Amino acid sequence: MSRTRTALALGLAAAGALSVASVTATAAPSPSAGPTTVTPAGHSFTATLSGKATLKAGSVTVTCTVSVSTGTVPAAPGNSNPAGPVSSPISPPTYSSCTSGIPGVTPTVTTSGSWSVSMQDGSPITATMTVPVGGLVVHTTGLATCTVTAAPSAPANVAGTWANGAPPSLTFANASVPVTVTGGFGCPTSATSSTFNAVYKVTDTTDPAQQITVGP
Length: 216
Description:
This protein is mainly beta.
């Protein structure tokens, strides 16, 4: 199922036409990593953007102030891994309330496919968001008509960090996502990556009195 939003999607931006300032794509934690347990098992959660995400490419800057994704912690015993990360499915992140730094340019994003986020206990606790092949497509209209496809040929792993708390937070900083760009005049067709920066606060929607927690 796909959804269209006038904005850019979580964690991805369009490289060139839209790039969420800060994000670095890295591989998921290695199989030799230590144990990880995410609790409460089976609980649903919502990740909501805190502050704003700034998307930038060259002289083009897009600022988004609303972004949401939902997910579910695996039921026991799947919420615990003795030698590596624990992965949870999430909905394709959506972005809205976005503005362009250049008048006359309107971004529209479509997200689809199976997204996920994996947590690995450690210092810091690491998080890896996986974007499926073609899971984010950005179109711009107006002064520049471009199409940017994220993770064009293989799933992309976007690295971040997790901090336990009340509420816990999920942060992506300086992470890169591979993209392809097509279009005419004004489109950054030579761009092969985009960047992403955002902080999300995570709420346990099954029991708001509890906190989603990552530990050994």
